[in-house]
Amino acid sequence: GDIGFIEEFCDLADRYNALTYLDEVHAVGLYGESGGGVAQRDGLSDQIDVIQGTLGKAFGVVGGYIAASALLIDYIRCFGSGFIFTTAMPPATAAGALASVRHVKQDVQARIRLHRNVNVVKSRLTEAGLPVLPNPSHIVPVMIYDAKRCREASHLLLDKYDIFVQHINHPTVPVGTERLRITPTPLHTDEMIDYLIDALVSVFDELDLVRQPVGESAA
Predict the structure, then answer these.
(1) pTM of whole model > 0.70?
(2) Which residues are catalytic?
């Protein structure tokens, strides 16, 4: 859920004549006037040499891309072995991706609903006394602090409440910072959010999970 210091990195790159490469796979479709990502939201897109995105996640298809100058793209086409030996995307997939990109770019209301739902989920988790990790993005981590218990919580949510929430363990995160990762969408209703919070409270109670405030040392 972290967002990097993009402007500061761009300033450093300008100072030392370096290239900038920004991974926006979690942000495209969700931030910016037309869903261009955090760099677009912050007015920094023209300062980034290469922006990496995905056609999965917000666009709901499959594949990925980079956006850069024509010269840099042509260089990668000629010398990027990972690209040269990759099979081309099927035409039907490309058509689906194009339709999705066109839709997401113009659907401003979906982005507004998304961020509204993110704020509601974070607020409701805090009100329920659950250890939500503060961050500036749409990813909402609920801290469990133990790999085995984190997996158990994820399985219980699915088996008992029909809610799938991915458990995130080492090596994705450091040992002792295991968490459930919640990602609200524009289509989640307030009733769905209430059901999620009630289910999480029940899971914490049933598994006797520690509702340790974020920032305090684990016991």
Answers:
(1) yes
(2) 57
